[in-house]
Amino acid sequence: MDDDFPIYPSGLRLSGRRVVVVGGGHVAQRRVPQLIGVGADVVVVSPAVTPAIEGMVGAGELTWHERGFVEDDLDGCWYVIAATDDADVNARVSAAAEERRIFCVRSDDATRATAWTPAVGRHEGFTVAVLGQRTPQRSAAIRDRVLELLRTGRITTREERERAPGVVLVGGGPGDPELVSFAARAALMDADVVIADRLAPRELLGDLPADVELVDVAKLPRGRSAQQEEINRVIVARALEGKRVVRFKGGDSFVFGRGYEEVLACREAGVPVRVIPGLTSPVAVPAVAGIPVTHRGVAHEFAVVSGHLPPGHPDSLTDWSALGRLRGTVVVMMGVENAPAIAAALVEGGRSADTPVAVVCDGTMPGERTVLSRLGTLADDLRTQAVRPPAIIVVGDVVAVAHPDEYA
Ligand code: SAH
Known about the structure:
Blueprint: E1 18-22, H1 26-37, E2 41-45, H2 51-58, E3 63-65, E4 79-82, H3 87-99, E5 103-106, E6 119-123, E7 126-130, H4 136-151, H5 158-161, E8 166-171, H6 182-189, E9 193-196, E10 213-216, H7 224-240, E11 244-249, H8 259-269, E12 273-276, H9 281-288, E13 302-306, H10 320-324, E14 329-333, H11 339-349, E15 356-361, E16 369-374, H12 378-384, E17 391-395, H13 398-402
Parallel strand pairs: 1-2, 1-4, 2-3, 4-5, 8-11, 8-12, 9-10, 9-11, 13-14
Antiparallel strand pairs: 6-7, 14-17, 15-16, 15-17
Helix pairs in contact: 7-8, 11-12
The structure holds S-adenosyl-L-homocysteine (SAH).
């Protein structure tokens, strides 16, 4: 558009209203889903359409007139998009639209249009629309940047900042800060207090505002239950002081993360608590290392099990012999120390000693490495390779799918 003709931005309510798209190529294909998304009654006029548009016709999402454009196509319509690759046809469409006082977008020549399609994105009830038709890539880049700022909580209103206190359990994913969700980042940026685990992606903590109180769980008094009790106590105490508390953990809070104990502690104290899930390491760590936990025709189930207690331990709740009978994938967490006993128990349960095993250490992090083994030789391999936690142990034929040469 030209600076001589400044545009007036407006939001259109197209729900139930006829919108005609002339042309059935890739431009039309990009516009049509947005129109369908807002409930418009979409009519595509074109002798041919892309397979994607044909699919939408088949799904009953739009009407297709399989022919060339005629001026009468615009009767009764509210909005037109001229998106053919023929400038003469587009010119006829805009002339017919002008005559009928219908706003018309033109894919070939924006200067001749009466309406423009912005780069659009949505976030929590807001629509971000950026116009600048001479530079559509730049519009899209600006849209992306604004959306990123919104999603990461860096554009907030006073009301949002003054939100009620409470606790958010945030799953931080397997370690790589890129694998943290938008919601998790936003919660961190919004926190007064952050209580972080050793396995949480700690690089992100460097971005926190200076006045945020950071509690490092690794520095709390030792002993499993003493430490958890102290965490529960700090979480509840800070929330009752009126602070927004983020409990930041590795992976997902509810997968061997003791997250639900913290939920219960908050409930007991009458503190509001919310959960933001994270990518959990038993799935994400093998994935980043190139190992699928399921694969068609190979593994139709996967079991995730904690190895922190050895098989046969009086407090163990795991039926290792049943896991030994499983055909699919067994993913063992916190299992490095007890791996020899676990491998033996699985073989005793019926799993072949030849079963491929992959041990992924420091998954998604700079020092990531994978040790390949088999159940029968796992104990020796862990010792000679000096494997240290944190590690994910993947047992099953999916390991051979990922490393066919090593298991040929
Ligand atoms: N809540 C976490 C798991 C906590 S238990 C989650 O959902 O992922 C800690 C165990 O997780 C470790 O002993 C190890 O088995 C596994 N683990 C977590 N992050 C890991 C990583 N980056 N690489 C390898 N193993 C990891």
